[in-house]
Amino acid sequence: MQTHEVFNQSVPLYGHNVADDATLLDGLVREGAEWALDDIGRLGRLAGTEQVQEWGRVANENPPILRPYDRFGHRIDDLEFHPAWHELMSAAVANGLHGAPWSDPRTGSHVARAAKFYVWSNVEAGHTCPISATYAAVPALRDAPDLAAIYEPLLSNSHYEGGLRTPLDKPGLLATMSMTEKQGGSDIRANTTRAIAQPDGTYRIVGHKWFTSATMADLFLVLAQTGAGVTCFLVPRVLEDGTRNNVRLMRLKDKLGNRSNPSAEIEYENALAWRIGDEGRGVPTIIKMVNMTRLDCLIGAASGMRRGVVQAAHHATHRKAFGAYLIDQPLMRNVLADLAVESEAATLLMMRLAGAHDRAVRGDQAESTFLRLALAVGKYWVCKRWPAHAAEAMECFGGNGFIEESQMPRLFRESPLNGIWEGSGNVAALDVLRAMGKNPHTVDAFFAEVALAGAEPSIERVVNEIRSQLRDLADAEVLARRVIEKMALVLQASLLVRSGNQAVADAFIATRLDGDRGSVYGTLPRGVDFAAILDRVSAKVG
């Protein structure tokens, strides 16, 4: 008797084009980066290969190891990575995810880069942290033109090289930010790290940072106190003479997810630094970096949703239960379609914000005003939606999804991260209130964007509800999450009506605005065009 015959199991999802995503590709054209379609397609095919997917798995399962000392007892504060990490980093850098818009600033370059980040994040999320931080460091670094002239070309070079070397001797550099302290967290004005000015114009940094990620970076953008207040500084890990700067990696954080990315406690022991921007203006300087990484948090969450629903739909296509494939069973079709609707709304919003960012960088004030509020709203909402989405996608596999080999637990562990990093939910909500109070034009710009959907009754009704709630801000903080949720939904609905798939738009409005659904995924009403929606998440292999 055969006891080990394998049947009715799915197959690994290899050999598909991760960029085969109509919402992504349509957005690329609409937002001014049609010229990048071929590049995105090539990267998508690479991301879907078995080899690259294995790099992601292995890098995650073999996190970095801290080597504080060499064999003789010398302090080296080095990190050891699995070769798969370096393969992923090399591919990301070669494809310009870290800096192509700065070295090749053509129209749509930031949109193209966002699309690549979305596609490549599908492989493994941990290594995208240093990629994101390096990309985001450039606008902040430009507050010190002399430093930017030296380091910006190296931060945008398409050559990756791991390890510690003198920055100017390496063909390409990576950057990270170092802000969070144990007593302050997001309250960076409470930082106690100090910067002491030196006669030659440099500074010495002394302090303890509680949580700094991408600690293999060559350059750290560090916040420290001077007599004038919080100020931003550039701290290299290795100095020009080849000696190591006094940047001490005390211990690596044992994180829920994002395990391939080394996050550490750091002590700066009179570390040599150069000031970026004016003294006391460190927050406005570092915010230029933070806002760009916030957009990447949203992109990463949208990418994770897409990966979850595509993997779930692939499994359901190959697995039978009760005499029929899961994909053909009404209840599973409802769940998968609901996940697809959420994913498409997130991707569409991501592409619109990437387009606004691209135009804002080029001096479009209207787009900059819109982005100021919309990014905070979008980052809050999309990142909040991902954990429940990842859990439901995992459940589509049944017990198979709870097993590490399915890769769904890795996706699930990753899902809360983007809602926490670069400002947790409450910080994002407070940022929305701050933007409204500081510049009321951001509110006008936001609703002008929503109004582009035309006379859509459900959108108009919810917009009126929001405006009514905004008139009385006596309990603004208490009600902030409720209001921001509605703002995100009307913005997504407007984008779907204008630029999305009709079946997806109808399902979104019926459930997210009109409330014709339950509290969990898989409660879409009758009349939804399930076939049209599910066709958009079927992975085409080969």
From TrEMBL:
Lineage of the organism: Bacteria, Bacillati, Actinomycetota, Actinomycetes, Mycobacteriales
Organism: Nocardia tengchongensis
The protein, known as: Acyl-CoA dehydrogenase family protein
Residues annotated as domain Acyl-CoA dehydrogenase/oxidase C-terminal: 280-436
The family this protein is said to belong to: Belongs to the acyl-CoA dehydrogenase family.
Domain Adaptive response protein AidB N-terminal: 8-161
Domain of life where this protein originates: Bacteria
Cofactor(s) it depends on: FAD
Keyword terms: FAD, Flavoprotein, Oxidoreductase
Acyl-CoA oxidase/dehydrogenase middle domain span: 177-270
PROSITE patterns: ACYL_COA_DH_2 (PS00073)
